[in-house]
Amino acid sequence: MSKQLLFIIISFCIGTFTQAQTTGKHHLRHSKTTAVNENLPYDPNTPVYQGVLHLPGTLSIQSNQVAFDSRGPKMVIIQSDVPMADTCTFELKTSSGITVKGGKLKGPYSVDDWTYGAIYYRADFSDIQAPGIYHIRVWQKDHWYYSNYFTIGWEALARMTIPSILHYYRKQRANTPIEWKTDEHVKLYDKDQTVDMRGGWCDASGDVSKYFSHLAYANVMSPQQIPMVTWTLASVKEEIPNMLRSLGVKDSITSEALWGADYLMRALAPEGYFRMIVFSYFDKDPKARRVVGLLANSITDTNWECGWREGGGMAIAALARVSTWNIKGSFSAEAYLVAAEKAFDHLLAHNLQYEPNGKENIIDDYCALMAATELWKATGKSLYQDQARKRAANLEARMSPAGYFIANDSARPFWHAADAGLPVIALARYLSMEKDTVFRAPALATIKGALDYNLKVTSETGNPYGYARQTFLYKGKVQDGFFIPHDNETGWWWQGENARLASLATAALVGGRLVYPQMGGWGVSPALAEYASNQLSWIVGANPYSVCFLYQFGSYNVPYMHSNFGHGSERGGVSNGITGKEGNGDGSGIAFKTKFTDEEWRWTEQWIPHAAWFLQALAATAQEATQPSR
């Protein structure tokens, strides 16, 4: 088959599937699984079964509800309340009813921490690459059970979803007339002084505030928000230009990256620091908005200066990266670079005074490494080379004998609800500049150690989904678990971790191409490819609740969430996701709720880091540089 004919077939399949999705209604539904007629007509918007965690007398097939890349691993999960026969098989069928593969189920597996008594199996059809629309069926107790339909095609998941993710960011822009007018003269916390903080993106489907980072006071948990989104958009634009061009969104992603960069420019104070937060206080009155520092429970203060880990490092990295483009937004390329260098110099001198505890930790290291690397690439200056090498060495020294990173100057393991893959990504980006083998060798060894540990900790217990597990400190004891501990340094914050999963998928692919390169597939070892695929599949439906967290894709979504100024849930946004059981301080158990004492946001709210990391992971699966190099 010629490449041209193959492309036409894939485009037709993906276009048909995307068009069908657009016309459907998407919301979360729960009911008991039932057997269905094997001649069920193809309709990707009508669920074949209604997903639940576990009900007696049921069998459910939990699948990626959107698409698989033909080159990547492809698996679905079967959950049953009784053991299935050793001879039980699955069939992979096209939407027209043709069986293209039969195979034996792998298992049984159990995850008693989640659902006692449930038995899990896996159906693996990774060898199928022919483009088309498929579903799985399994025979049990005199009935056929069917999965949702999904597409297989060349870069199918990326091609079907990236335009919608860019649509999501476009709709998240804080650019309604009232926001634009108010933020041009937003007040500094308790002062009459006003500053221009126009632009940026609303943080979440229920929060129109704008954050560089919203957990700075907790020191070791700071997520990277608007600056990381900006860097991601710039990175993806450079990594997969041919795909973006073929999708007709290259100009869109450029515009979105520059939109973010322009906000970073306005947030830069004359002194050289970035102002951290424009906070709405969840008030419908736009005049309530203030530039603030943020503590727990929406308590605000005057500590709005960003350190490396509070968004400053990633903001510098983003500005330095876009400064290399022969394009400008509201500012020139030269202005972006001048601002990045000014902010870098300022944090070299003042970072510790902006840190709540006066100490640096691993987040400072990987954010400063990103800043130094991008400035090194943009300028070639030895200052940034030296600083990048210093920060890389800091990260290397934080690797524990067990294989996980140490977050602080004590014994706390590094875990993160959003950016768990960022240490590896930062080292990989650094290695794109570093040519000296004396410095490359320890960085490569650190990436290898981190990826090896991710695979090890994930496989050490029953885990049919391949969900990325982690190591954390809880009540003075180092332990492993699926979900972040709810009792943590923030005092209140825990939520679904889809950003963490996508960040680790990105790290597995980007880092894996450096330390476990392999021709074919996604350019990494089979173990890392499967690990990455499992995280993406979980986000788009292959999870115990059969929820596709990518909004308006798949068969089951979370309910719509609205916010002020006309913002709310948008197609292409990614919701928080699944957590440990509420009330379990160590994050054990499992929970997903659409209503819970006004705290359903922990599971259902869209958040800009989720979509950014999902976008990065998609770009990594489709990376156009197919020849990995150490």
Keywords:
single chain; alpha+beta; Immunoglobulin-like; Glycosyltransferase; 6-stranded mixed β-sheet; 16 helices; 18 strands; disordered N terminus; disordered C terminus
What this model shows, in words?
This protein has 630 residues and is an alpha+beta fold. It folds into two domains: 3-153, Immunoglobulin-like (Sandwich); 156-621, Glycosyltransferase, CATH 1.50.10.10. The protein is 37% helix and 13% strand. The chain is built from 16 helices and 18 strands. It has helices spanning 3-22, 156-172, 177-183, 226-239, 241-247, 250-267, 312-322, 333-354, 362-379, 382-397, 422-431, 437-459, 498-515, 526-539, 601-604, 608-621; strands at 59-62, 67-69, 75-80, 89-94, 99-104, 106-109, 119-124, 132-140, 143-146, 150-153, 186-188, 194-195, 210-211, 277-279, 290-294, 300-301, 470-474, 477-481. The strands form four sheets. Strands 2, 4, 5, 8, 9 and 10 form a six-stranded mixed β-sheet that branches. A hairpin with a 4-residue loop joins strand 4 and strand 5. Helix 6 packs across helix 7 (312-322) and helix 7 (312-322) packs antiparallel against helix 8. The longest helix is centred in the C-terminal third of the chain and has 23 residues, at 437-459. It is globular and about 75 Å long.
